[in-house]
Amino acid sequence: MNTSLSWIKMYVPDLDCSAQEYCDAMTLSGTKVEGFTRLDRDLEKIVVGKIISLEKHPDSDHLVICQVDIGEKNVQIVTGAPNAVVGMLTPVVLPGGRVAGGHDGTLTEGGIKIHAGKLRGVDSDGMMCSIEELGSSREFYPEAPENGIYAFAENSGVKPGDDAVHALGLDDVNIEYEITSNRVDCYSVIGIAREAAATFDKKFVLPEVTPTGNSEDVNDYIQVEVEAPELCPRYTARVVKNIKLAPSPVWMQRRLAANGIRPINNVVDITNYVMEEYGQPMHAYDLDTISGHKIIVKRAQDGEKFTTLDGNEYTLDHTILTINDAEKAVGLAGIMGGENSMITDQVHTMLFEAACFDGTNIRLSSRKIGHQTDASRKFDKGLDPNNAMEAMNRACQLIEEFSAGEVVGGAIDIYPVKREESRVLFEPDKINSLLGTALSAKQMLDYLAKVELRYDEKTNEIVAPTFRQDIHRCCDIAEEVARFFGYNNIPTTLPRGEATTGKLSFKNRVEAKARDVAEYCGFSQGMCYSFESPKVFDRLLLPQDDVHRRAIQISNPLGEDFSVMRTTSVNGMLVSLSTNYNRRNKNVRLYELGNIYIPKSLPLTELPDERMQFTLGMYGEGDFYDMKGVAEEFLGQIGMHDRLEYDAEAGKPFLHPGRQANIIYDGKIIGFLGEVHPLVTRSYGIGERTYLAVLDFPEILPFATFDRKYHGIARFPAVSRDLSMVVPKNIQAADLEKVIRQGGGAILEELSLFDIYEGEQVKDGYKSMAYSLVFRSRERTLEEADINTAMNRILKGLSDMGIELRQ
Amino acid sequence: MSDGMKEKLDSIVFKTLEKMQNVKTTEALNEIRVSVLGKKGELKEVMKGMKDVAPEDRPKVGQMVNEARDRIESKLAEMRQRLDQEKMERQMEGEKIDVTLPARKADIGHRHPNTIALEEMERIFIGMGYEVVEGPEIEWDEYNFTKLNIPPNHPAKDEQDTFYINKDIVLRTQTSPVQARRMEQGKLPIRMISPGRVFRADEVDATHSPSFHQVEGLVVDKNITFADLKGTLEQFAREIFGPDTKTKFRPHHFPFTEPSAEMDVSCFKCGGKGCRFCKGEGWIEILGCGMVHPHVLEMCGIDPEEYTGFAFGVGLERIALLKYEIDDMRLLYENDIRFLKQF
């Protein structure tokens, strides 16, 4: 919503403040100002001048030398304007002044400074201006010439030396507001002016609407039926005959221009003016095109076609409300009138409509046909039906005032259920205890009275006029009090009452540990979108029947690339690594904590399973075992180390078939890790071996614990033994270690691999592995015999597996 | 006889001490020790002369020899310590390093700026007794809208550019549904923040993202006032933007609060004078807030006559972008380590 400051001052005549003060105060009282533009920000030293003589320039075919009366003196100005004639009154910028832009309409930031100088050797003390040079255009000043300097009309009353910026109405400020959806009344100049008067504590003066109409009866011209009252609470209409289309008066043109509305002719300008002033859209039909002298407001037929006055054709259905005559539709209610009934230059009699339509229906209809208009944007907020007739009469008053036509007496008003004022019990104590203030009832009532919220002493109620559709309960009254008392005058306290414990959830604490471990291990935190393209499944080589392809689809996505909720965090990680690889970042390690979304059924009938994934990815330094180390470090930190296993048969198609494993804890798969399949790294454009680990939080949380117990520090000496073995290649370290641990029994304290080798010195099909074993008892010093017994058991177990000791 | 011995011993001691005084190495010191105290040393030679000493004099002479040895040994110890020290000093002198050479750092990863900002906010509110609560990102339309006083066909539903899965299920546009879920549990009083991911159908550009994060707060208790809301948020602003931060509250409208407000903080770059950062305003818009609408309380089974509450919502990215002066929101989701390493 925009208004010019001068228009506001029409209704708040005593308003006396700068544009900045106005904007600041309005924002603080609840009418938020987004910004303002001074129309004259780049105009300086511009007066009205009168050309008193004109002669040809001796050295130019197209320049003329003018003597111009600027009030206190005459100046000489050379101009190329083809329309310059003696006697013309025109804006003149004096030396040292500024204009807003060039004559072709391009604006210059900060304006263009004008100096005294010579044009082809002849002195020129200033410049006569076109409307474009003054920062406006013929759109808003249709009387301005297409090519040449602006000429004031002879009857405009300006004289040489007058302030030309003021005379053109350019000494104004255009203010842009952000109106919230609860304040429909503020989508009008009057509504904002009412707020301005209350904010600055000044008198609010509504326009005085006088009775209009001749002795005829409107009912002789038109009958109106509303067949769909649920979508049209009120319909008012009047008739104007003997229409004389002409430009509207300059003051109205200027006011519309300052609001950014292009003046067209008296009738159009009046409807636009009243729409801005009252917030009530109006429509004018050429009555001679309305057949049967009848208007019927009803729902469209399914499949009905209709052409609006801008020439677009729409297909309608029964949810869309139309205005019809006896034979055909003539308008889309609240959106736009029809081509078949529009006002043309030949119009003789017109039907004026000011109605109130259901806001939701207008919003849904305009969205359905894909056409929003200034009118529909007003209607879809849900207008006050009590405003319609007032606006209608205001328009007719202007018609008469401008002699634009003859208003027929009487008015059609179909308004079956009158909207009543709302009433809210006045509870000053409750208001004070909600706000934390100590205002008196009188203070509160004074604030409320400023915005026409009346106090009914008999019932102890606040009565809200129907234009205030947002006043229903005590808290709404409290807000009105707070606004005018000033939000910033309300004291500041902290909540008292029962103490509460501030805390993070257990899941959040485990997440924090994941972040810590990942970062200690050199991984930086990334964040990925939750939605991605369904094409990622192919990229990850997932078979057609893979369960991950059962993803939740967004019904209105931003595009295919963001259309499914991710079922795996792998793609996000690979995309991030790929971005880094493309930007030549070396040794990249990233982690992410984010959800995947697993539907319980498709289509979705209940909320899906949202599973937090701790995803690690890296390329550059480090391999599978480094990644495994990070995973184990994390699991160790959350108390999960004693029941950890790995299963190489993880079956992940996007991982290297020989370098992947499920991570298993207490028999449950809690995640996986591996090297990314070379086909996949290639398709993501990563030119290095890439490793991933994904840990599934819902599986981890039941095992995670921050409980710790002290086990004491060993007091008896340890004995070390090394085992160097030749092991068949197909035997996994985990199986071999299991045998060693079984054989070692309780006294085997530590077992660690210190060498593994395959190659020349080892026979084909075998690998050499060397472990260091540490034996220790918690109760006593071990004897040689204890160690030997354990070692013998170990060797027996190993040899049963076909493992030989290395010679 | 003993006089002759004494002279002899004195002379050995004197000579030895003098020699030791000029010794430069432990090896040379050792040689002296051997030559005097060793098996064939001078002192041993003297001892050999004991047989010529009268028996009654022997204890005295013995004592003299011991004294001489003590003197020499104590000097030896002193010299050894001095030489050790000199040697260490020489060694350290040679070990001098260039302390300005580059440090060798552990390659530690970096936290995402969103998380840093979130952890800071969590720290502030946990300190004030708030519990951190999470909820589903894919949410019932009813929780995302209806229970927050946004009935079907309310214009606010359009304003939020919602992603729909179907007519009943949406990607949540705010984390307020978590508050509704928490209120429904009926455990009062409530002091909570609900951080999390939210979604709105905005195309990606420097200031928009279809997915971002909010931190919403809720307090429900007896006698909670708008003044409490102001006090709480003022304290939050000072904690997060610095102790000199000023706040300004402007009326606004949100369906689930009444009265509602927006809070601005004084520009932490220029202190409120107006700069490029705050677009000359001196103030920066930070969050929306208000007193929980009684109808919202009612829908969640809380009696608004007995309880009141306040709620607020902050965009996490907005805080992160402002606080760390990040000029393009897209950087937050690209995961370029050159960006992440700066945090």
Automatic annotation (TrEMBL), chain A:
Predominant localisation class: cytoplasm
Molecular function via GO: ATP binding; catalytic activity, acting on a protein; magnesium ion binding; phenylalanine-tRNA ligase activity; transferase activity; tRNA binding
Co-factor binding details: Binds 2 magnesium ions per tetramer.
Any Gene Ontology CC annotation: phenylalanine-tRNA ligase complex
Domain annotation FDX-ACB: ranges: 714-806
Swiss-Prot/TrEMBL cofactor(s): Mg(2+)
Record localization: Cytoplasm
Keyword Magnesium found: yes
Transmembrane feature ranges: none
Binding site for Mg(2+): D470, D476, E479, E480
B5 domain: residues covered: 419-492
Matching Gene3D superfamilies: 3.30.56.10, Bira Bifunctional Protein, Domain 2, Ferrodoxin-fold anticodon-binding domain, Nucleic acid-binding proteins, Phenylalanyl-trna Synthetase, Chain B, domain 3
Pfam families: B3_4 (PF03483), B5 (PF03484), FDX-ACB (PF03147), tRNA_bind (PF01588), tRNA_synthFbeta (PF17759)
Alphabetical UniProt keywords: Aminoacyl-tRNA synthetase, ATP-binding, Cytoplasm, Ligase, Magnesium, Metal-binding, Nucleotide-binding, Protein biosynthesis, RNA-binding, tRNA-binding
EC numbers: 6.1.1.20
GO annotation terms (biological process): phenylalanyl-tRNA aminoacylation
Catalytic reaction equation(s): tRNA(Phe) + L-phenylalanine + ATP = L-phenylalanyl-tRNA(Phe) + AMP + diphosphate + H(+)
Residues covered by the TRNA-binding domain: 40-165
Similarity section: Belongs to the phenylalanyl-tRNA synthetase beta subunit family. Type 1 subfamily.
Quaternary structure and partners: Tetramer of two alpha and two beta subunits.
Protein name (record): Phenylalanine--tRNA ligase beta subunit
Source organism of the structure: Bilifractor porci
Name of the gene: pheT
